[in-house]
Amino acid sequence: MITSSIHRIEKEDVPALHFPAEPVHWSDEHRRLRDGNIARATQLGNLEHTKSRIVFRDNEGLKVVETTVWAFDADNIVLKKGVTIPIARVVEVDLL
């Protein structure tokens, strides 16, 4: 887990956030791990309704939300009610 200050939010608050267009820069290995965790979180979210912890960066800093991941595509992670987080802004995804 990232050790800097992270602000916990509810998934209902995500649509009010502003995400810069530029991606968070990480190594290729970090991106592979993150993307694998997104896929696993989606699978477990749909099969077992397992929640995940998603750490991401908006225009103000690091945020974390604990919720079920329902889907993802090349650009976004999709949460309940169509709430999305840009994958390019995701730092980490952990299964709970």
Keywords for this structure?
single chain, 96 residues, alpha+beta, SH3 type barrels, 4-stranded mixed beta sheet, 3-stranded antiparallel beta sheet, 1 helix, 7 strands, 22% helix, 31% strand, globular
Itemize the secondary structure elements and their pairings:
Blueprint: E1 7-8, H1 28-48, E2 51-57, E3 62-68, E4 71-72, E5 76-78, E6 84-86, E7 90-95
Parallel strand pairs: 1-3
Antiparallel strand pairs: 2-3, 2-7, 4-5, 5-6
Task: Please tell me about this protein's structure.
It contains 1 helix and 7 strands. By secondary structure, it is an alpha+beta fold. The chain has a 4-stranded mixed beta sheet with strand order 1-3-2-7, covered by helices on one side. The protein has a 3-stranded antiparallel beta sheet with strand order 4-5-6, covered by helices on one side. A hairpin with a 4-residue loop joins strand 2 and strand 3 (62-68).
Following the backbone from N to C, one meets helices and strands in this order, namely EHEEEEEE
The Rg value, from CA coordinates, equals 12 Å
Strand content: 25-35%
Assigned CATH architecture: Roll
Described by the principal axes of the CA atoms, the overall outline is: globular
Low-pLDDT sequence parts: none
Multimerization status: single chain
Helix content: 10-25%
Biggest sheet, spatial arrangement of strands: 1-3-2-7
In the CATH scheme, the class would be Mainly Beta
Give me the secondary-structure category: alpha+beta
Number of helices: 1
Task: Look at the structure and give the mean pLDDT.
Answer: 91
Largest sheet: 4 strands, mixed
